[in-house]
Amino acid sequence: MQLAYNEIYPRNPRSTMILAIESTCDESGIALVSRDNATSTRFTIEFNVVSSQVAKHTPFGGVVPRIAAREHSKNFPILLDQLTSFLHSRGLQLNTIERIAYAHEPGLEPSLLIGANLARSMAYFLDLPLQPVNHVFAHLFSPLIHDNAGDISVFKGQFPLVGLVVSGAHTRLYVLRSVTDWEIIGDTRDDAAGEAFDKIARMLGFPYPGGPHIERVAHAGDPKKYPFPRGLIESGDYEFSFSGLKTSVRYMLRDLGFMTEGVTTQNTSLPDSLKADIAASAQRAIIDILVTKTLSAALEYNAKGVIIGGGVVANQAIIEQFRLAAEQMPEPLTIYVPDRQYATDNAAMIGVAALAL
After folding, report:
1. Is the pTM for the entire model greater than 0.85?
2. Which domains are seen in the chain, by residue range?
């Protein structure tokens, strides 16, 4: 189990704090988010701990729901011990907490139940209010966190905004007129962008999760080498599709003799140059779809900015292309992106979203 901590001494011991819980997939997370008083917009991430299950799921090529739930059950007691130790070391008690926020949807049902039951139990015994938070929408608040602090009023005066969440399970586009007035204007019809990265990486012989491997080898490849399809890029709406891209890569490997009946049989002998070119070309196809759809929505809705969140945006090539494309827009467009550590699933973003909502 890997633990990562951000422990910051509260400036005001009487500040209000939200305890946040994340358990939607394979990351167990607990965070404490504080503010100086009930009306303050500034916040501090006092404590943030994430336990990753990647090593448990890598042999299976993806997340196994039953294993994920089992690992959450093992990890959360350890994380709670870490939380208790942190509070005691700062002379604080659990009754310092104002409320409990937890990710209640969407996600793997067994994993969601572990987090929800933990939140409900703590709320009952501590006599605290519960605040359910939509996990996908919460990703749009992760760009507010910098150096373990931030201000939920950053978006004020910037609406309307377009929000894009890109993860292993979701590719979703929002228009936000305020943090509480928003609608989903586009979603994936099949594979999400992150899933496409993982499946293409697996065809190239890389382990799960595949996205970081694609990003790494793509640096040495030619993004124009293979004209992979850009699904629905001219559909006139904001729906996404990445299954055609995945299939195109499979057929190309089959025609080259590296794949039989959908299984990559000689991936270890794939030339490095071929891996790099496929990775670069596939990555560029995914980026083109994301950038084109998102900036088209920004134009239609007269957005002043674009918020990007989700684990896939840890890929710096995506951020670079968004910024380059934004510079070509008719009107200035601000691109809000999370720090790398807050792009993937974490409880801190759940707590910040709870403050904002």
Report:
1. yes
2. 16-145+343-356 (3.30.420.40), 161-337 (3.30.420.40)
